[in-house]
Write a structure and sequence with these properties.
With about 220 residues, the chain is an alpha/beta fold. Helices cover about 35% and strands about 20% of the residues. It contains 8 helices and 10 strands. The strands form 3 sheets. Strands 2-7-1-8-9-10 form a 6-stranded parallel sheet, with helices on both faces. Helix 1 packs parallel to helix 2, helix 5 packs across helix 6 and helix 7 packs parallel to helix 8. The radius of gyration is 16 Å and the shape is globular. The chain binds adenosine-5'-triphosphate (ATP) and magnesium ion.
Length: about 220
């Protein structure tokens, strides 16, 4: 069992890409793998239902096929912070609902890859953040660092917060979302300062290239 919680230094840093690659790597190890995107803002309406691309991508990559509502219990149309999106439609995000759903999924899979929304401390309601969801699920954390100017600060702040959570810090991924001439130096600076394994350095990829060719799971995750 290698269930993981994937967070990032920000929104749009490659959490879905990396989560999807982690699902593929776990499948290669012969595991039954499910994906979960418990909270998604930025959804579109198909017939009468809200759908989110991240949740669909993760479910498509997974080899344990689940009902959409099971993997994405909280879906909001507006692409805004989840607690604000929820408030606008009169919903209170309940971490225990997510936990219950996760528990049901876990019974059907060897591993569940859970993608957070935005970064570590994104609020989900008036009291809790995505970090509380990760803590509630008790999962080892993978941090995706979107390599760009400013990311060292964002990464190190997030690392401190992950440490405070008490959760195992499984590893981090340097994801080059845009070309950056200082990428190598940034990645080296992060390797020197992040007290968890670097699972991979992903270059800027074209659509046909695979993220999974650039990251590895830890041996202990076998
Ligand atoms: N290594 C990469 N090379 C090129 N493009 C990338 C790379 N990683 C991610 N992208 C692109 O960057 C965009 C954001 O990636 P992704 O959707 O995985 O981020 P995210 O952190 O999951 O975002 P969100 O916070 O919305 O969930 C996507 O268009 C994706 O295809
Ligand atoms: Mg995503």
């Amino acid at each position: 069992m290698t269930s993981l919680f994937v967070t990032g230094t920000d929104t749009g840093v490659g959490k879905t890409q990396i989560s999807s690659a982690l699902i593929s790597l776990l499948k290669q190890r012969g595991q039954r793998v499910a994906g979960m995107k418990p909270i998604a803002s930025g959804c579109y309406i198909t017939s009468d239902r809200l759908r989110n691309d991240d949740a669909l991508v993760l479910n498509q990559q997974a080899n344990v096929q689940l009902n959409y509502d099971d993997i994405n219990p909280y879906a909001f149309e507006l692409p805004i912070a989840p607690h604000i999106a929820a408030k606008k439609v009169g919903v209170e995000i309940d971490a225990s609902v997510i936990h219950r759903q996760f528990y049901q999924i876990q019974k059907k899979a060897d591993s569940v890859v859970v993608e957070g929304a935005g970064g570590w401390f994104v609020p989900i309601n008036d009291k809790l953040t995505m970090a509380d969801v990760a803590i509630r699920l008790g999962l080892p954390v993978v941090l995706v660092v979107g390599i760009r100017l400013g990311c060292i600060n964002h990464a190190l702040l997030t690392v401190e917060a992950i440490k405070c959570s008490g959760l195992p810090f499984y590893g981090w991924v340097a994801n080059n979302i845009v070309e950056n001439t200082e990428s190598d130096a940034i990645v080296e600076s992060l390797k020197d300062r992040i007290p968890a394994p670097c699972l991979g350095v992903v270059p800027v990829l074209s659509a046909s290239q695979l993220v999974m060719d650039h990251i590895t799971l830890l041996d202990s995750g076998k």
